[in-house]
């Protein structure tokens, strides 16, 4: 079972990250593996979060969806209220919103290596201005 533990210093702040009814199914021929089933999760600015669970509970799958390295089979991933997989622009593809989410990643899913300092500095500056 996947367990999400949060410590919320200010419940009045709007969520900066939300997963709504997220599901992820991996298909291998006729076999379906349900890695996540109807997960709801949110993180507010300044909140500390730990994602814990046994092996195979969906932790890595959830983090891959949050980091847009993979797409959910069902549900929505929202960053600052925007569905990151519903955008019509070129950055809609998996791996396209890592700069906005503050992920430095390893660049493998994107097929290139970006400047890690820029990848971290841009979202920190943006988060400061958006959530004041």
Overall description:
The longest helix is centred in the C-terminal third of the chain and has 15 residues, at 116-130. This protein has a single domain (2-130), classed as Rossmann fold. It is built from three helices and six strands; from the N terminus they run ββββαββαα. Helix content is 20%, strand content 36%. With 132 residues, the protein is α+β, with helices and mostly antiparallel strands. The strands form two sheets. A four-stranded antiparallel beta sheet has the order 3-2-5-6, covered by helices on one side. Strands 1-4 form a two-stranded antiparallel sheet.
Instruction: Detail the poorly predicted runs.
Output: 96-125
Give the CA-CA distance, first to last residue.
36 Å
Taken as a percent bin, the fraction of beta residues is: 35-45%
CATH class term: Alpha Beta
- How many alpha or pi helices? 3
Total tally of structural domains: 1
User: Quick one: biggest sheet?
Assistant: 4 strands, antiparallel
CATH topology: Rossmann fold
Overall pLDDT confidence: 75
What attributes does this structure have?
132 residues, alpha+beta, Rossmann fold, 4-stranded antiparallel β-sheet, two-stranded antiparallel ribbon, 3 helices, 20% helix, globular
Describe the secondary-structure layout:
Elements: E1 2-7, E2 15-28, E3 31-44, E4 48-53, H1 59-66, E5 74-79, E6 82-83, H2 98-101, H3 116-130
Antiparallel strand pairs: 1-4, 2-3, 2-5, 5-6
């Amino acid at each position: 079972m996947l367990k999400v533990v949060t410590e919320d210093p200010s419940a009045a702040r709007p969520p900066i990250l939300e997963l709504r009814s997220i599901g992820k199914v991996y298909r291998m021929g006729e076999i379906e593996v349900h890695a996540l089933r109807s997960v709801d999760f949110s993180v507010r600015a300044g909140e500390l979060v730990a994602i814990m669970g046994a092996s195979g509970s969906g932790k890595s799958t959830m983090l891959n969806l949050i980091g847009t390295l993979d797409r959910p089979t069902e549900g929505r991933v929202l960053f600052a209220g925007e569905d990151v997989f519903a955008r019509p622009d070129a950055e809609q593809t998996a791996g396209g919103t890592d700069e906005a989410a503050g992920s430095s990643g390893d660049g493998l899913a994107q097929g290139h290596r970006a400047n890690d300092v820029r990848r971290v500095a841009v979202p920190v500056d943006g988060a400061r201005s958006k959530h004041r």
